[in-house]
Amino acid sequence: MEIKLKDEAKADKRSTISLFFTLPIISWALYDFANTIFSSNINTIFFPFYMKEQIGSNEVLNQLASTFISYANAAASFFLVIFSPLFGVIMDKSGLKKRYLIPFTLLAVSCTFLMGVFGKWELSTQYGGLPASLILVVVFFVAAKFFYNSGLVFYDAMLSDLAKKGELPLISGFGVAVGYIGTLVGLTVYPLAKGGSENAFIPSALLFLIFSLPLFFFVKEQKRTENGKASFFSGYKEVIQTFREVKSYKNIFTFMIAYFFLNDAISTTIAMMAVYAGTVIGFSSGSFILLYLVSTVSSIVGSFIFGYITKAAGARKSIIYVALLLLIALLIAVFALSSLWFWIAGSLFGISLGSMWVASRTYIIELTPEHKRGQFFGLFAFSGKVSSIVGPVLYGSITLLFASYGTLASRLALGSLMLLTFVGLLILFRLKDESV
User: Fold this and answer.
1) Number of domains present in the structure of the chain
2) What residues pair up with 42 in beta bridges, in sequence order?
3) Rounded Cα gap, residues 54 and 412, in angstroms
4) Which residues fall within 8 angstroms of residue 326, CB to CB, at 6 or more apart?
5) What is the CA angle 401-144-26, rounded to 5?
6) Where are the alpha helices (DSSP H) in 219-249?
7) 103 occurs within a structural domain
8) Residue 131 β-bridge partners
9) Does residue 435 sit within a domain?
10) What tens digit of pLDDT does each residue of 18-42 get?
11) For residues 225 and 371, is the Cβ–Cβ distance under 8 A?
């Protein structure tokens, strides 16, 4: 009996290397690699570059390009707000995640591919003074981002199926680190974009698809649990019921409010970073790519290290540390008068971006009961995407309102994100360390 217990203990304590490089976990992490290519290439770099090339020709029009980008991101988030709570209910009802992740991924890839197709078409037709091709690119960007984010609801929830609770912070950190390596691979398409940023859309779609395939084939779906069918309206009834049970899950709801403000700042900064660096600081597209590479390396190192920090200090404290880094990064970026200061801001933002994913995913799992975990991941996405509407709309409205002031408009818009980060920090301090 004693020998058997020792053998079980050894089996429970897998080495870090053997933990990371099991086929299901490396396949799961490679999906982070794949979707980060979409996030960086399409959302952060080449779609904003494309809009700036098509619209921005002076300081005022640059601010209007920022407004277009902000509102397009807000539109994508609006659709996710409508559907994300239902996604969580579907997970809890069926026990299935990969079955829904695969079609959402394929739809995101297809829409990204179509962005490239229409971006290259020179249509003479115009609507509201804008080329029809540009409008179609924006429409397919909104659709691609919606499907991409919908898939992430199911992908993030898969984390709890991969290992035991004590191993989850390390796996989460490993996944994010591998994801940001995907950014480096994604940037290999940059030479193609020198003839026009739309040339990067189709190669980015193909890379997204290729590196998603290991998860499709090598991560096994959890056994289906027959808990009944989930209709659209029955799903929302359960979501409403969960909100009514707020007293039973006070910490998780409080965290979602904090995350609302923090994600507001993060998602808006991601979407506007390229345009801000170019119009305010004077970065060329090549200089921004180099900055983005440095920020990505910071994200890789930061996310991997924060996996260990989260395990040692706890998820809540780790999120507080990340939020403080984010606040400092935004402060430096708002007042940066030279490229050197923006390099520092970009590096700090890179660390905070990767680390926020590591700590927040782990914290959701710590706080939620297993039978409602899918629903809470859906609500987590709901909180994040409501904020992803508010942040870009706020940013875009400020740049629109103060467009005649040139670069000051963008500095004011980015400064508004500091206020949101500060509010999120205050709410985090009200939380207590506890888990289910």
Assistant:
1) 1
2) none
3) 24
4) 262, 265, 266, 348, 349, 352, 356, 421
5) 120
6) 232-244
7) yes
8) 126
9) no
10) 667 788 889 999 999 999 999 989 9
11) no
CATH code, domain carrying 307: 1.20.1250.20
Tell me 224's DSSP state.
P
Per the domain annotation, does 229 fall within a domain? no
Tell me what pLDDT residue 417 has. Answer: 92
Rounded distance between C-alpha atoms, residue 16 and residue 385, angstroms? 33
Instruction: Quickly tell me which residue has 């801000």 as its tokens.
Output: 276
CA distance 237 to 231: 10
The model scores a pTM over 0.85: no
Distance CA 159, CA 197 (A): 34
How many Å apart are CA 247 and CA 239, to the nearest integer? 15
DSSP 221: P
At which residue do the structure tokens 């290290």 appear?
305
Domain span at 254: 20-222+234-430
What one-letter code names the amino acid at 325? L
What b/e readout covers 218-254, taking b as 16+ CB neighbours within 10 angstroms?
Answer: ebeeeeeeeeeebeeeebeebbeebeeeeeebebbbb
Phi, psi of 127 (to 5 degrees): -135, 120
Say whether pLDDT at 9 is over 50.
no
Q: What sign results for the dihedral spanned by CA atoms 349, 355, 356, 357?
A: positive
Phi-psi region for residue 131, left (φ > 0), alpha (ψ -120 to 50) or beta? beta
Q: Do 100 and 90 form a contact (C-beta atoms < 8 A)?
A: yes
DSSP secondary structure string for all residues of 323-358: HHHHHHHHHHHHH--SHHHHHHHHHHHHHHHHHHHH
Q: What is the pLDDT of residues 92-130, one digit of tens each?
A: 777 788 999 999 999 999 999 999 999 988 766 766 667
Looking at residue 96, the DSSP 8-state letter turns out to be -
φ/ψ (deg, to 5) at 306: -70, -20
Is the pLDDT reported for residue 236 higher than 70? no
Give the whole-angstrom CA distance, residue 379 versus residue 383.
6
- Stated as kind and residue range, the H or E segment containing 126 is strand 126-127
Residue pointed to by tokens 């700590």: 359
Residue 4 lies in a domain: no
Q: Which residues contact 369 (CB under 8 A, 6 or more apart)?
A: 436
